[in-house]
Amino acid sequence: MAEMYEHKEPDDSEEETFGGQRLAERRPRLLHSLRSLPECLTWAPLLLLLLLFVSLGFFTLQLTTLVQVSRIRCLQRDSGDHENNSLDKWLDTRFRSLTEVAQKQMQSNLEEILQRLTRMNATLAGLCHPCPQNWEFFSGSCYFFSWTQSDWRSAFSACLLTGAHLVIINSTEEEKFLNFWYARNNKPTWIGLSDHHSEGSWRWVDDSPVQLSFWKKGEPNNHGDEDCVELHNDGWNDGRCVTENPWICEKPSAPCPDL
């Protein structure tokens, strides 16, 4: 079986055919996603940084003015010159006015930056596709449910050619998700579990042992050299590996680009 794990990655636009079924493999990788972004999105972070620096510069200028005004007021009070009360009042009013202007300007700039970032994130989310076409997303993984049928070993190879593997079930939630899609064709479906390496020792295609099982009542029974596992709506069944069934492939979903 070791040689069955060797595979060649198809090009992004290449179409594969497995058991008479055509699969359009379009892996949405991070680099590809970034290349597909409009030019305005690639420059947008720099423009936002420039706007932020301008806002900070304006705030620094206002702060410097406020400090100078404060020093003048202190000098006036220390000199005891009561004849400049009108100037003191004017400076006090001016001080409060500049403070309010600086606060409002900073708040306005920050709100504008937040709005632009929100719009950019929404745009990027629309461009991101975590799974290839005709695959289903669930809990960080992508799943392909075949419409055609094949024996277990051919299904195993078909998944490898898409950069995936026959599905490995690790939770009750995942089993329920697969059962929901199983109801679509209501046929026994191959999963990535077998004991063809060692009779009675059930292992997944990544060579990990079974931690959580959903066997049907009375299974596995190894009746008639049954070494590969089928998914049914009421649990798992060990079947003959040469039987032709639909299959389910699984692979990690692609990350979406971040700002």
Automatic annotation (TrEMBL):
Alphabetical keyword list: Disulfide bond, Lectin, Membrane, Transmembrane, Transmembrane helix
Region feature Disordered, mapped onto this chain: 1-20
Biased composition (Basic and acidic residues): 1-10
SUPFAM superfamilies, per the entry: C-type lectin-like
Domain of life: Eukaryota
InterPro entries with a match to the protein in the record: C-type_lectin-like, C-type_lectin-like/link_sf, C-type_lectin/snaclec_domain, C-type_lectin_CS, CD209-like_CTLD, CTDL_fold
GO MF annotation list: carbohydrate binding
Family annotation (SMART domains): CLECT
Pfam families named in the record: Lectin_C (PF00059)
Ranges that cross the membrane: 43-67
CDD domains assigned: CLECT_DC-SIGN_like (cd03590)
Protein name: Uncharacterized protein
Gene source species: Ovis aries
Source organism phylogeny: Eukaryota, Metazoa, Chordata, Craniata, Vertebrata
